[in-house]
Structure formats: C-alpha cells, structure tokens
Amino acid sequence: MDVEKSDDMTAKVELDDEGTPIKNRSNHWRGLIGFWILGLCNNFGYVVMLTAADDIIKSQSGEKDVHSGPRDCVYMSTGAILLADILPALIIKLLAPFIPFFVHVRVSLCVLIAAAGFVMVAFSDNITMSIFGVVLTSFCSGLGEVTFLQYSAFYDKNVLSTWSSGTGGAGVIGAASYTILANFGLRNTLLMMLIMPISMGISFWIILPNPSEEDEHAAEIQRRVNTEEVSNAKEVFVQKVKKLPGLLKFIIPLTTVYLFEYFINQGTFELIKIKKDFVKPEDQYHYLQVAYQVGVFLSRSSVNVFHVRHIWIFSVLQLVNVVIYTTEAIYYYIPYFWIMIVLTLWEGLLGGAAYVNTFYRVSSETKEEDKQFSLAATTFSDSVGITFAGLLAIVAHNKICDLPLPDSAH
C-alpha cells in the first residue's frame, strides 16, 4: 500500500496495489451496490402486484364477474391490474423529465407512497380499494425509475448495469417470494414486504456515495444543468422537446418489445391451462410469472458481458412469441407445462435484454449535458408499451373467453 501526496502537499491519498485511490474504489463499489438495491426495491412492489393480480381479482370479484362458459374465465382479466399498475407510472414518466430534479424530495415520496400502497392492498375489502393501492405502488415505481436513472448520470455508467440487474432481481425475488409466501394469505404477505420501501431509503441515504465523490466531472456538469433548469425553465423546456426526435431510435424498439411481452403476460398467461401435469392448472399463472422474471433478471445482468446494438431484433422475436402464446391460449396444442416454462424464460430474456441494452446505448451515445434528460425521457417507452398491452390484453382475454374449448381440452 502506497501513500501519495497531492500537488499542494496538504492531503494524503492512500493507494492500493494498482495505484487506485482506496476511497475511490470503495465509493465505486458502494455506487454499484447501492444502485442494485435501488433497482430491486423500486420494481419489487410493481412485480408483486402483477404476480398477485390473479389472486386480487379472484378474491375481490363477485359472481357477476365470472363467465360460466366452457373456459370458466374471470371477465376482469389481470390486464385491469396491469393498467392500474402502469398508468400512473406512465404519467409520471412523461412529466418527470421536464420537472426540476429535486432528488431527495422524490425519493422521500417514493418510500412513503410505496409503503402506503402495500398497506392499502393488504387491508382492502373491495376491488376499488385494491386497485387504488396498486395505483400508489405504480406511482412510486414510475417516479423511482425516472429519478434513479436520471441520478445515474452523476455516476459511472456501469451503475446502469447494476440498476438493471436489480430491477431484474426484483422480478425473480418479488414473484418467487409472493408465490412462496402466498400460503400465509394476501394480507400477511404484503405486510411482510414493507421491508422494501425501508431498504430503498437505507440504500439511497446511507449506502450510495455522494455523487461528487464518485465522478466529480459528471457531477459538476449535471449540477450546472439542474441550475439552468430552474433559472431558465421555459427555454430549457423548449430545448428538451427538440431533443425528443433524436431519441426515437431508442424509444420505438423498447416500446414495441414491452407491448408484445405484456400482452403475452396479462392477456394469455391466465388462459393457458395444461391439465395432468406436475403443476396444477390454478397454480400455473404464478409459475409462468416466476419463469418470466428469471429470464428478465438474467438478461438485465448481462450488459457488462456483451452488448446488442441492434435492439430492434428483440421486437421481431417477441412478436413471434405473441403468435405462439395466443394460439396456445386458443387451441391448447402444447402438451407439457415445462415447454411453456422454457418459452416464458426466453420471453423474459428478450424483454430484459431490450431494456438494459437500450439504456446502455443511451448512456454511451449521448453527451454528458444531455444524458440526464435522455435517460429520463426513454423511461416512458416501456410504460407506453405496457399501457397499450393492458388495453389489448383485456379485449383479447374476453374474446378468447367466449370461444369454445378445443377438442384437445376435453
């Protein structure tokens, strides 16, 4: 271990064997770990609400909502929960890039609103109250995503990889933990998950290093940008709008990927029932959600291993999956549930890869002074796609419910 004096001879900086300041290395790892935990906590509630969607609908729906036809469908599909879980996030993502960046206020709101969402759904006694609780969770998720991605502009670009990995981890841990804990009942399960908003606050205010300690140059540029936003709000707003067309090459592919995959998840998953298999038909929805989230986690953690520049390829492959899942929901031609697990894992891999490679490209290909806005503006891509997916899923779900069962189901 060496000791190096600064140019003014007033400070000593401890170096490791590779000549890197020990404090800088420590802050670097704190930044990576902090953003992983933030990604986990931010998306956890969103994932739990989608995994619990089938249970929320069935526990709160009266007999009038149940179709007594051959497919025994619930007319209010999980697409309704999806819309409640994404529309508030879409609204905040559309507005946040144009709002001055007061990060501590935003994170405080996220922590409080996320906790309120869990509590409201846990103690709900009707579908309206449940959906409002989901709305609160969605608002937190949307505000958190746009805020933390903007905040990542102050740090090394590798925090985007750990953030994305954390959001993928939220999928696996959220879906799996709900599936495992569901035996304790919806209320107890959701109350146990209040640990996540608390962990978000700990990660942001304690684990994450001060931005200026992580990347002083980037932090100085971003501070200058934020100051200008407050002092010249109208002019800055016009400049931001003019930058949007240049971001369409990122926004359009990511939007279509999420449109296709969430149509699959919320429009077809609960309609796919493979009988006489190792998983009971009523439990298959949860298992498919877990398989999807495992795929998302793996691919969102991959960007430091390899990059995919042509992100449109994910849209094409996801469209193929739409055809497979929709025809399976109608005709029941896939004989074994493990085939559905593999297909769903693949679907998740495509979605996660599209997300992390899109934001990696945005971070790598935009100027430092534009990075914060570009990252924030691109976040609404997934929400737009998911919103349209929810609308289409409700229509498609009810149309398929009215179809007769295929011969293979008898």
From TrEMBL:
<feature type="transmembrane region" description="Helical">
    <location>
        <begin position="189"/>
        <end position="208"/>
    </location>
</feature>
<dbReference type="GO" id="GO:0007040">
    <property type="term" value="P:lysosome organization"/>
</dbReference>
<dbReference type="Pfam" id="PF02487">
    <property type="entry name" value="CLN3"/>
</dbReference>
<feature type="transmembrane region" description="Helical">
    <location>
        <begin position="33"/>
        <end position="53"/>
    </location>
</feature>
<dbReference type="InterPro" id="IPR036259">
    <property type="entry name" value="MFS_trans_sf"/>
</dbReference>
<dbReference type="InterPro" id="IPR003492">
    <property type="entry name" value="Battenin_disease_Cln3"/>
</dbReference>
<dbReference type="InterPro" id="IPR018460">
    <property type="entry name" value="Battenin_disease_Cln3_subgr"/>
</dbReference>
<dbReference type="GO" id="GO:0005765">
    <property type="term" value="C:lysosomal membrane"/>
</dbReference>
<feature type="transmembrane region" description="Helical">
    <location>
        <begin position="163"/>
        <end position="182"/>
    </location>
</feature>
<keyword id="KW-0458">Lysosome</keyword>
<feature type="transmembrane region" description="Helical">
    <location>
        <begin position="311"/>
        <end position="331"/>
    </location>
</feature>
<feature type="transmembrane region" description="Helical">
    <location>
        <begin position="101"/>
        <end position="123"/>
    </location>
</feature>
<keyword id="KW-1133">Transmembrane helix</keyword>
<comment type="similarity">
    <text>Belongs to the battenin family.</text>
</comment>
<keyword id="KW-0813">Transport</keyword>
<keyword id="KW-0472">Membrane</keyword>
<feature type="transmembrane region" description="Helical">
    <location>
        <begin position="130"/>
        <end position="151"/>
    </location>
</feature>
<dbReference type="GO" id="GO:0012505">
    <property type="term" value="C:endomembrane system"/>
</dbReference>
<protein>
    <recommendedName>
        <fullName>Battenin</fullName>
    </recommendedName>
</protein>
<feature type="transmembrane region" description="Helical">
    <location>
        <begin position="372"/>
        <end position="396"/>
    </location>
</feature>
<keyword id="KW-0812">Transmembrane</keyword>
<feature type="transmembrane region" description="Helical">
    <location>
        <begin position="337"/>
        <end position="360"/>
    </location>
</feature>
<feature type="transmembrane region" description="Helical">
    <location>
        <begin position="246"/>
        <end position="264"/>
    </location>
</feature>
<feature type="transmembrane region" description="Helical">
    <location>
        <begin position="74"/>
        <end position="95"/>
    </location>
</feature>
<dbReference type="GO" id="GO:0051453">
    <property type="term" value="P:regulation of intracellular pH"/>
</dbReference>
